[in-house]
From TrEMBL:
<comment type="function">
    <text>Catalyzes the methyl esterification of L-isoaspartyl residues in peptides and proteins that result from spontaneous decomposition of normal L-aspartyl and L-asparaginyl residues. It plays a role in the repair and/or degradation of damaged proteins.</text>
</comment>
<dbReference type="GO" id="GO:0004719">
    <property type="term" value="F:protein-L-isoaspartate (D-aspartate) O-methyltransferase activity"/>
</dbReference>
<keyword id="KW-0963">Cytoplasm</keyword>
<keyword id="KW-0808">Transferase</keyword>
<dbReference type="GO" id="GO:0032259">
    <property type="term" value="P:methylation"/>
</dbReference>
<feature type="active site">
    <location>
        <position position="73"/>
    </location>
</feature>
<protein>
    <recommendedName>
        <fullName>Protein-L-isoaspartate O-methyltransferase</fullName>
        <ecNumber>2.1.1.77</ecNumber>
    </recommendedName>
</protein>
<dbReference type="InterPro" id="IPR029063">
    <property type="entry name" value="SAM-dependent_MTases_sf"/>
</dbReference>
<keyword id="KW-0489">Methyltransferase</keyword>
<dbReference type="Pfam" id="PF01135">
    <property type="entry name" value="PCMT"/>
</dbReference>
<dbReference type="InterPro" id="IPR000682">
    <property type="entry name" value="PCMT"/>
</dbReference>
<comment type="similarity">
    <text>Belongs to the methyltransferase superfamily. L-isoaspartyl/D-aspartyl protein methyltransferase family.</text>
</comment>
<keyword id="KW-0949">S-adenosyl-L-methionine</keyword>
Length: 227
């Protein structure tokens, strides 16, 4: 695809994100997402982070298959979860579920450092290649069990989980810095909710249900190499 067509597709994606945001403004508490988040959504080349067979669908406001039974989330959900984290340029961010690296790239444009954990080694390798090819230098990735987080680099100012555990993983809450935020889907496949978790300065946590969602389950246990 030529650059002009990609630019038009990306602009249409931003329009769809804005429309969907306005439709759920009562649930999310705002009619517009942070302009900085929208700018980053317009800059990160989403088509690079999907398999070649699906590049024509990259900027549609829908999930796209990325292999191993996983998908890249629809752009609205990527933008909303990023907005809810309220990332500062000095923040250290933990991401659970690298996939092919699109959400990772979005986070890296806003944060000081991103640490991303992926259980499936094949996806992690593909993500690393894509991120390196685009020159994202403030991202570290590893293959591992997302339930365990990345304790060597904790505590984190922000944590994002892009697959749904049945309940909030204690290790991730422990690795969230006082004053920090975590965004994640929680619940069984047919009854998930996107949640915002906040920790106050004293370490007390509170949760807010934002929207009903549907994500892949967050799998627990040893890493797997599926391709």
């Amino acid at each position: 695809m030529d650059d002009g067509k990609l630019a038009r597709m990306r602009q249409w994606m931003l329009t769809e994100i804005a429309v969907e945001t306005a439709c759920v403004r009562e649930q999310i508490g705002k009619a517009q997402l942070d302009p900085q988040v929208m700018d980053v959504m317009g800059e990160v080349p989403r088509h690079v982070f999907v398999p070649a067979a699906f590049q024509a669908e990259a900027y549609l406001n829908q999930p796209v298959p990325i292999g191993c039974g996983k998908t890249i989330s629809q752009p609205f959900i990527v933008a909303l979860m990023t907005d809810l984290l309220d990332i500062h340029s000095t923040d250290s961010v933990l991401e659970i579920g690298t996939g092919l690296g699109y959400q990772t790239a979005v986070l890296s444009r806003l944060a000081r450092q991103v640490y991303s954990v992926e259980r499936l080694a094949g996806l992690a390798r593909e993500a690393r290649q894509r991120l390196d090819s685009l020159g994202y230098a403030n991202i570290q990735t590893r293959v591992g069990d997302g339930y365990l987080g990345w304790p060597e680099h904790a505590p984190f100012d922000r944590i994002m989980v892009t697959a749904a555990p049945p309940q909030l993983p204690p290790a991730l809450l422990d690795q969230l810095r006082n004053g920090g935020r975590m965004v994640l889907p929680v619940g069984p496949h047919d009854h998930q909710a996107l949640m915002l978790v906040r920790k106050d300065a004293q370490g007390q946590s509170s949760t807010r249900v934002v929207l009903p969602v549907r994500f892949s389950a967050l799998e627990e246990g040893e890493a797997a190499d599926l391709f």
